[in-house]
Amino acid sequence: MRRFIILVLLFLTVSCSSFFSEETEQKSHNIEITLFTEWNVNQNEFSVSQPVKLCVIEVRRAGWLPARLYEGRICSEPSDAVDVINYESYIVAPGQKRIYQAAYPTGAINPRWILIGAEFQQGIGARSLIEKEIKPGEDFKLNVVVEKTSLTVL
After folding, report:
1. Is 35 within 8 Å of 91 (Cβ atoms)?
2. In the prediction, which pLDDT does 22 show?
3. Which of 86, 75, 81, 61 is nearest to 120 (CA)?
4. DSSP strand pairing (129-134 vs 112-119)
5. pTM
6. d(C-alpha 65, C-alpha 8), whole Å
7. Which of 43, 86, 100, 133 fits as disulfide partner to 58, beta carbons 3.0 to 4.6 Å?
8. What whole-number distance in Å separates Cα of residue 137 and Cα of residue 134?
9. What is the CATH code for 26-153?
10. Angle ∠(69,75,77) on CA atoms, nearest 5
11. Does residue 85 register a pLDDT over 50?
């Protein structure tokens, strides 16, 4: 009986101490970018809408540009891995949407920048690249519409 009481007390001591010493989880901040294509996106010479290649690039510094930007290949795989944190590309048909989601740790003190790019059939459009800053310690949400040969932030 005495052993049983000792085991119960030991169990209670261990379980209570683990309950009260539970560490709080480190919260992360969310990044969410919704990309929506209109029906009149990326039209060919016959005014027929085509799928468009879109990309989201997370970088460490402002002013970073994709290596093949002036060739109209904004969304080609970034070769400068030093500044690139994350890269996602999508082929999106007219009238569809994609959602880019990521997270970064609460303790991050350096800002990040998001680049949203689009490759159109006719090359670089009116506004094929958008850059936005993500301030440290904040959630980031952005809605982007792609129509004809242009990106627009809502």
Report:
1. no
2. 45
3. 75
4. antiparallel
5. 0.77
6. 64
7. 86
8. 9
9. 2.60.40.4150
10. 100
11. yes
Token pair 């690139």: residue: 84
Q: What percent of the chain is predicted at pLDDT more than 90?
A: 43
Angle, vertex CA 109, rays to CA 106 and CA 111, nearest 5: 105
What count of residues does the chain have? 154
SS3 for the chain is CHHHHHHHHHHHHHHHHHHHCCCCCCCEEEEEEEEEECCCCCECCCCCECCEEEEEEEECCCCCCCCCHHHCCCCCCCCCCCCEEEEEEEEECCCCEEEEEEEEECCCCCCEEEEEEEEECCECCCECEEEEEECCCCCEEEEEEEECCEEEEC
Reading the block at residue 139, the tokens are: 């959630």
* 7-47 confidence digits (pLDDT tens): 555 566 655 544 444 444 558 889 999 999 999 998 888 98
Map out the domains of the chain as residue ranges: 26-153
Evaluate if residue 6 carries a pLDDT over 80. Answer: no
pLDDT in tens, 109-127: 788 999 999 998 877 777 8
